[in-house]
Each structure stands twice: as structure tokens, then as C-alpha cells.
Amino acid sequence: MLVLIFITQVALSCETSAAEHKTRRDAVAAEVKGKIRVSGAWALYPMMVKWTEEFKRVHPEVRIDVSAGGAGKGVADALSGLVDIGMVSRELRPEEMAQNLFFVPVVKDAVFPTVNENNPVIRELTRMGLTKKAFLALWVTGSAKNWGELTGVSNSQKVRVYTRSDSCGAAETWAKYLGKDQEDLKGVAVYGDPGVAEAVRRDRSGIGYNNLNYAYDMKTGRPVAGLHVVAIDVNGNGRVDPEEMLGTKEQAMRAVQSGVYPSPPARDLYLVTKGAFKGPAREFVKWILKDGQKYADDIGYLRINTSQIKAALRKVGE
Questions:
Q1: How far apart are CA 126 and CA 222, in angstroms?
Q2: CATH number of the domain at 110-258, please?
Q3: pLDDT in tens, 274-308
């Protein structure tokens, strides 16, 4: 009888503890409410949409407004107080840091060169890729005039180069890979990641560059319909080695993670604000650094490493 009473008491105690835990958890969830405004880099936009959906499942009383527009807009909006969180897809500049810009890394991705899938020398591009020297001839010196020059075959089809018109991390990162600034990049200027992808998709002779989730289809893992992602012949041996292949999103992510794909154009992506994250925005960023990381793989980003997460949480004030 005593044993039965003891077991019953333990069971009741466990139920009470579980109920108290649920109550505390619900109370914590209810504490996070209000509005969070986010703007900035196209590169982070798909990931931020997913984070927003998942965070609101836990904190349904939070309203989160997210808009893209380029890394420059994210920084400007954050510094002016128009948003609580800016999304940035490049390294922060000294003049921005001087304005008390507060930042933490949240995920990693890369910028990839893209051409039309019906490019006149698509076979050669698939087999050989392009070297950094070729990209310099396209975007910096403008000396590459036709696809034959780039691939060593007889083809006089002129190359049409596309770049970004908006201040953005993709252009800044691609320029940095080539040893330049965004302003130095030649080409037809197009607004936004989707804009460049669409321009190249419609232009058989076009070449541009896109962030990971605009170069590859999120559902299929293949390049976006109409696009071909050009491998970088990193070692200059005149062929695309297995570890350099970018035919699928999985291959691209593996190349970035292994370090075979150069950095830049691989890079960390950041969230920024002026001074420090406050209120519900602070709770959202903390959640992104902890629970939010598990969604990165599904959307096609690379998680930041453990040491980066710990350092960012300390910075945020965990």
C-alpha cells in the first residue's frame, strides 16, 4: 500500500512538473509580442521568410514584416531606424561601423556565375568552366567580346554581361573576388537578384551572377529553369574537376563547405541594427542563432559554425 501511495505521489509530482514547465514555456512564448521590421539583402530573403514562418508558430502574437531591396538598403534602413533588423550579404564597411552599426553572422552562402542554358558554347562551359582570368575579362576589363574567345572554339557570338544596378552584397562580393568594388563592374545593370536571373534566362548570350537561392530552384535542387551555373576552374587545368562541379545545389553547397569554391564569392550573411538589437527583434535574433539554424539546410544555406554562434549570442546578450 505504501509503495502504491509513493508511486502515485511521484506520478502526480511528474504531471505537476510537466504542467508547470508547459505553463512557464507558454508564458515565455507569450512574452514575445509586437512588431519586427526587416529589410535588406536579396541573398537572405528566402531564409528570413522561413525563419519568420517558424518563429511565428512559437510566438503567434509577433508581427514580422520582411522586404528585400539589397544589402545597401538593409544597412541604410537599420541605421536610420526604419527597420529593426537589416539583412546584409557582404562584409561591413568601416564607414558603416563608425555609425555604431551592430552585426552578427547568421548563415553562409555564395554568389555563382550564371549563363543561359542554351548558351552557344554550353558544352564547352560544362566541360571546362571558366577561370578567374575569364571573369576579369568579362566584368573588369571588358576585353572578352565573344564566346569563342572565352572557350577557345570558333564562335563569334557576342557576350552580353549583366551586373546589378542596386547597392547589394552579391555585386560587392563578386567584385571583391575579382579584386574590385561594385562600381568597377562592367555590364548591363539590372535591379535585384531575380532581375539578373530573368535577364540571363531570356538572353542566350548573357552571363550574370546570382546568389545561391536565385541560381538554384529550391524544390528541385537544379539550376533555375533557363539557367546554367558555370563552374569556376579554380586550379586552371582546363576542365571541371568533380569537386568543382556546380550542377546541383547539393554540389554547390559541398564545394562551398569544403572550401573548394573560393571565398569570396562564398561569404557569411549578417543581420544588423543600430546600437544593439532590442525588444522582440533581440528575441528573434537569439532564436535564429539557436533554433533557427536547423532550417538552414532545408532552404539551401550553410549553418555558421559553433564558435560563431557562441560569439554572436554573447554579443547579443544571451
A1: 14
A2: 3.40.190.10
A3: 999 999 999 999 999 999 999 999 898 999 999 99
